[in-house]
Amino acid sequence: YRVYWEATTGATRRKIKQKYGCQPPKRWWSWDPILGFDWVIGNFKAYSQHKLLEYWTSILRQSNAHTVSLYVVGKTIFLTNDPENIKTILATDFSIWSLGKPRMEQMTAYVGRGIFTNEGTAWKHSRELLRPSFNRSQVSDFHIFEKHTARMIERIPKDGATVELEPLFHLLTLAISTEFLFGRSTSALDDARKNEEVEQFIDAFEYCQNPFENANTRKWGWRGALLPDLRQKKCAKIIEDIDEEVTLKRTQTSGNHETERYVFLEELLAVTDDRTQIRSELLNILSAGRGTTACLLTNFFFELPRHSQILARLRMEIKDSVGVNPPTYEQVKELKYLKAVVNETQRLYPVGPINTREALQDTIIPHGGGPSCTNPVLVPKGAYVAYNTYAMQRRKDIFGPDAESFNPSRWLENEHPSSPLRPGWAYLPFSGGPRVCLGQQFALTEASCIIVRLLQAFQEVESRDEEPWREKLTIVCSSLGGCKVGFRQ
Ligand code: HEM
């Protein structure tokens, strides 16, 4: 077998190495280089202390490299925070990288097959169908944002009492994205009775979205990972049932909709009557559009009230450019300081801080090999590259010596030693390449509109979080302690 392997696969790999001058990257030191058991235990430990991102970042820092390799259960994994490597995977060599079987299986179990879990032609088809939902005229329709945000503001105490914003943001973004994409909102902020069902849906989603932990591992530690996860099945059923109900109601009222907008669900119903496909596409897009913006807003309001000068400057910008009325799309586009604060929030707290891709054939990534870490690295077929945007967006050589601190002025011309900042592939909150986030403009305008309305409604915003920011990591990442704030009108 060895002789055969050397004559075929080995020969191809030697040729690639020779052609591109590949060298191996630094290897992460492990006392179990075959099974990588220490890596698995290290991950469990770091995850349970809510320090997984720090752990992955420290592996790169301790190795003094931006790309390292390790072996886990016979698989080669490359960890990287190198922008050029990430660009190669996501854009330049897009077609030879897959989302990877584990991710597809984990997500398909609760959202089925759709834009997030498909590849090749099926993915292209889903993307084409969704794309018109996000064109400018759709995204600039502020009516939906405004209506639901007003309802959320009504529910916030105005006397300075502490309010937990995270659950409100989840209800709000779900209400907005269901109206935007399905033509019918959960209206989850309207009445308490409806909330119960919606909250159940959100809880089930949150549970399924966590690939690192389940009810068994919570109870039995890492041994629990070996047991079947019955709760996952139950949650997947809750999600399926509620989604089915939405689809059914919409099918019955199809054609009666009052809006001229492109409603994704309407278009889906026009091209297929396969219920499973419809449900899966809806769940896929919901999983993208719901929690992500809520996490961004939670992280934003976690940081903002801790910086009185930044808050004051932001208020001033809103007062001067928008006044007291609801903002228009054009006004929001001109709020440069708001954009800088949102950018800075996403830089320090990316909603998708780590991600992976699997090589479909023997290939290379351009950086990380050899003693100087500048040679290309051979990535064998089946190996994984895990890219860490959390670590990359905190790199001092790219963002300056104060890269760990919250300083929006780095995004503004002539206001910071690193400006004008053009980080290119070193700043990737919405990913890049052909699978770049479809909802980027929607999410940014939605979040900006909500922030402007909240700051217009309240004169005082005070942080009530006692702990520093700690990660709550599922497939998205936000603040573990949520975001507690006191507002005064
Ligand atoms: C702050 C909010 C958001 C952030 C940070 C974000 C980030 C991302 C990232 C990093 C990806 C790439 C995932 C991967 O390659 O594995 C992605 C994909 C995607 N996002 Fe977003 N997203 C946000 C909001 C939204 C919203 C509101 C929607 C739609 C309503 C949306 C729709 C999508 C879709 C459809 C994809 C899949 C694209 C594809 O695979 O072709 N996103 N997003």
Automatic annotation (TrEMBL):
Required cofactor names: heme
Keyword Protein transport: no
Listed CDD domains: CYP52 (cd11063)
Keywords assigned by UniProt, alphabetized: Heme, Iron, Metal-binding, Monooxygenase, Oxidoreductase, Signal
PROSITE patterns documented for this protein: CYTOCHROME_P450
Pfam families: p450
Domain of life: Eukaryota
InterPro entries: Cyt_P450, Cyt_P450_CS, Cyt_P450_E_CYP52_fungi, Cyt_P450_E_grp-I, Cyt_P450_sf
Metal-binding found in the keyword field: yes
GO MF annotation: an example: iron ion binding
Binding site for heme: C437
Family classification: Belongs to the cytochrome P450 family.
The protein's name: Putative P450 monooxygenase
UniProt source species: Sporormia fimetaria CBS 119925
